[in-house]
Design a protein that fits this description.
about 210 residues; about 30% helix; two-stranded antiparallel ribbon; globular; alpha/beta
């Protein structure tokens, strides 16, 4: 729908388009308005391995690698208590195909993702973002309403919770749609610094036999 500036924040609003992602780069901090769906391992496996159609349309949408704590209020009403990110690398082997098949545009989780996800983001127009760890209660306060719950047979952590959110974040872009991968870039920088440090240390301890 749009990417805009609001109170100094860069806001993405679902449905997200390829054009919205053109100005988004690794290291950017963004927030999300609209909808996000919690989606973890089993939902990925059902779609990719079992070829089961997802019960929610993710085209232009956002998913959250998260296993939330939800309070059942009865009459199909729910309250988000806490929703912390799950390690995204657990979904690495599925994510490229997941992006291609669903048209999802924003993937949120914990930690970085690898080469295949980076390829999927570049080939099909998507981004991966990191939600800061330890902020599960904060994230829950940014969920205005849980509008639907799908595949509840999977249990609370794996259920697809469809959440309406406002200024959900901060989300740090770790993979952009241009082929950038913040975690891989930082590994290169770290290794360069490590090699220099080892070289310096080796000089200082060269007297040790």
């Amino acid at each position: 729908m749009s990417v805009s500036e609001m109170n100094g924040k860069k806001i993405l609003t679902t449905p997200i388009t390829n054009e919205d992602l053109e100005s988004i780069n690794i290291g950017d901090i963004v927030y999300l308005n609209g909808h996000i769906v919690t989606c973890r391992d089993v939902a990925h496996r059902r779609l990719i391995e079992e070829k089961r159609e997802l019960p929610v349309d993710l085209n232009g949408g956002a998913i959250f690698h998260a296993g939330p704590i939800v309070r059942d209020l009865g009459d199909n009403k729910f309250e988000m208590v806490a929703v912390g990110p799950t390690t995204s690398m657990r979904m690495e082997r599925f994510e490229k195909e997941f992006i291609e098949e669903t048209g999802v545009k924003l993937i949120v989780g914990k930690g970085g993702m690898g080469q295949r996800t980076m390829e999927g983001c570049q080939d099909f127009g998507a981004v991966h973002a990191v939600f800061p760890g330890g902020c599960a209660v904060l994230a829950a306060t940014e969920v205005e309403e849980i509008e639907a719950a799908h595949w509840r047979d999977l249990g609370m952590p794996e259920t697809l919770w469809v959440c309406r959110v406002k200024e959900f974040g901060p989300l740090i872009i770790s993979i952009d749609a241009h082929g950038g991968n913040l975690f891989e870039q930082n590994k290169i920088i770290f290794n360069e610094r490590k090699d220099k440090a080892i070289e310096e240390i080796s000089k200082q301890v060269s007297f040790i036999k």
